[in-house]
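Per your request, structure below.
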């Protein structure tokens, strides 16, 4: 008989989002471990706001952009204790299998049983450079899923993965990308969260291609990763990092806003960026997404503005409950 999951484990993400009352689309947010005291304060303010706004779950990145790995565990533990359902990321970069097992053990000891299993990118200045597995480590995210399923501390974890609306940059074509994503879903992952995108059609095509290729595993929830647009600089950075396509219409709207900003001195790009993000999210909701996962960079404001436009949150600046975490 299979052993039951330890009682301290958090509820699986897919149960949490499925329990949202009908007519309400759940949302969740991604945090990064802070690097200094100011960033730490900002993170906890945002965590309080998102708790009070009713986020279904929060996620904490691992080693992304060089952030400290110990901080992922510390931040995730604190978020989980408060209590927010917490999805903790883990990557293979610079880890042996033994170390990965120790981290899975640490997550299990903290009750952090929702894992986003990732390969990670090469550390250092060029994340798009060649990938080299660590000696004694693992090669692909699917290996981490398999490890988590056979390691006793994490055998009951619910595991999510990354998926890529425009295909992962190391894949030769979309067919290969679809197969590799399905490999992770067949290895036991229960849902995916996508890389951010500017064109909703790419997200919809990814969802369709997964189901078409494998009606069983391909039908697992695909959660769109949404990054609220607040500046031209951040749009350019995302295009550089992820290769996301910026549709011509959006490019023109943002450039017009930039011109207007130069004339008026107002932050027109942010205003138009939030409008664009709201329109994208409205379409995703109409397409029946299971959850909206906002990449917040630890700022609450832009996400709250989008949620407000959708009638899912009060306007920014409104006093929220602030009854938890403090
Ligand atoms: P994999 O699934 O291992 O895929 C890597 C490449 O190998 C792909 O091209 C894939 O198609 C190919 N591949 C997979 N299996 C095989 C196989 N058996 N044979 C041949 N080819 C194969 N990075 C961080 O450092 N920290 C984070 O916290 C983080 N969070 C993220 C959250 C989300 C939602 C997303 C979308 C990405 C995140 N990333 C993070 C970035 C991620 O680590 C990179 O995009 C990385 O390049 C790919 O990771 P993966 O888990 O998809 O890798």
């Amino acid at each position: 008989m299979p052993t039951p999951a330890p009682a301290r484990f958090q509820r699986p993400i897919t149960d949490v989002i499925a329990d949202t009352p009908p007519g309400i689309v759940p949302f969740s947010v991604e945090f990064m471990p802070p690097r200094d005291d100011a960033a730490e304060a900002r993170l906890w303010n945002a965590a309080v706001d998102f708790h009070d706004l009713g986020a279904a779950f929060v996620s904490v990145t691992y080693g992304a952009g060089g952030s400290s790995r110990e901080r992922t565990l510390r931040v995730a533990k604190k978020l989980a204790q408060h209590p927010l359902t917490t999805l903790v990321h883990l990557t293979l970069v610079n880890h042996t299998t033994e170390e990965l097992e120790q981290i899975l053990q640490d997550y299990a000891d903290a009750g952090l049983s929702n894992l986003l299993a990732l390969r990670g990118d090469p550390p250092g200045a060029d994340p798009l450079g060649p990938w080299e597995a660590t000696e004694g480590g693992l090669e692909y995210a699917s290996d981490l899923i398999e490890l988590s399923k056979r390691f006793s501390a994490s055998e009951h974890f619910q595991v999510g993965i990354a998926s890529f609306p425009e295909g992962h940059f190391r894949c030769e074509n979309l067919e290969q990308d679809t197969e590799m994503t399905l490999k992770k879903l067949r290895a036991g992952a229960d849902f995916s969260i996508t890389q951010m995108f500017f064109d909703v059609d790419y997200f919809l095509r990814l969802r369709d291609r997964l189901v078409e290729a494998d009606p069983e595993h391909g039908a697992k929830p695909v959660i769109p990763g949404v990054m609220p647009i607040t500046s031209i600089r951040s749009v350019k950075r995302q295009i550089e990092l992820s290769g996301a396509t910026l549709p011509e219409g959006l490019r023109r709207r943002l450039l017009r806003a930039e011109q207007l900003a130069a004339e008026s001195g107002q932050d027109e790009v942010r205003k138009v960026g939030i409008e664009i993000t709201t329109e994208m999210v409205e379409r995703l909701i109409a397409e029946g997404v299971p959850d909206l996962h906002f990449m917040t960079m630890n700022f609450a404001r832009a996400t709250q503005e989008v949620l407000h436009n959708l009638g899912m949150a009060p306007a920014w600046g409104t006093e929220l409950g602030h009854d938890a975490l403090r």
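The radius of gyration is 19 Å.

Regards,
D.
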